Fold:
Amino acid sequence: MLALIGMPRSGTTWVAKAIDSHPDTYYLHEPDSEARLDIPQIINAEDNEQYLPYINEYLAKIEGVDKLKVVGRLPFYPKNYFNSLQLNFNRLSALASKSLGQFSQSITKGSPWLIKPGKKHVTFWKSIESMGRVSLLAQARPQIKMLLLVRHPCAVINSELKGEAANKFASKTPIYENWGLFEQLLESKTATDNTLTLDKIKLMTPAQRLAWRWLIYYEQLLEQAKLDNCLLMRYEQLCVEPLAAFAEVFRFFGLTFHQQVKHYLKASTSSHSDSYYSTSKDPAKAMHGWKSKLPAKDIAAIESIIGSHLDNEYWNI
Structure:
C-alpha cells in the first residue's frame, strides 16, 4: 500500500495523478475525506496504541470506499490489470455518473458502476486530512510507503484565501474560522510549545491563523519524515526538477519510472490553466504566483510565524 499525504492546496492532486498514471497503481482519491476517520486530527506517537485497532480496521476496508469522488477521478489511465474494454467501460461509466450528477446529488454521492481491479495491483490513496496521523499509519502498516508533500506556506495560504473568496469549498464555514479544527491542533507539541490558545487564535487575522495551522502540520510532518517508510518532498522541488524528483519518488515507492508517467509529467507541465482545480500548471507560474497576489502585510505576518522553516533552497528560488 502506498499513500500521498499533504496539506490542502499543496499540489497533491497533480502529484497523485502522476502516481495514478503508473500502470500498476489503483488510485483512491481522498477516501478519508469521504468516509471520515473518527479519530483526532493530531495524534502524538505516544498515543498511537489506543487508535491502532480502529485504523487497522479502516485500512483493511479502504478499497470499499467506492464513492464517485474517490474512485471516479478522471482521467483513467491504461492499467496492467485491465484490458482495453474494461478500461473504456470504466471511463464511460465514470463520465456518465458525473454527467447525471449535474441533475441529482444522490448520483454524485453514490458509487459508480466500475469494474474493480484484480489482485495484481498496488493500492494508492491520497489524503489531505491525515497529516497528523502519519506515525499511527506507519505503526499500523509497517509496509506502507508514504510520500509527505509540503509547499511554501504563502502559496498554500494564498490559494486557500482565494478559494474562500470564490466559494470553491463545500463548507460554509471558512477554514480560518473552523474552531473545532483549531481546538484539535492545540493538542500538538507545536501549539503547546508556543502557548497557543483558542482565544489567541481568534484575535489573529485569517492569514495568521492559517500560518499557525500550516506550521503545526509541517512540524508534525518533519518529525514523521524521520520514519523509514516516509519520504518528505517539497512541491517546489517537483516543479524545478520534475523528472529527477519524480524518479526519486518512484524509487522510494518501489515502482518503475514508467514511460506513461513521463508522458503525464510532460503533458501536465507544458501548458497552464488558471482553473482552481486544474492539474495543468506551468511550474514557474505555479511556484511563484503568490508573490504578486498575496498582500505584503499577509506575507510579512506569515513569515514572522513560520520563521526559520522558510530557509530552504527550493523555497528561495
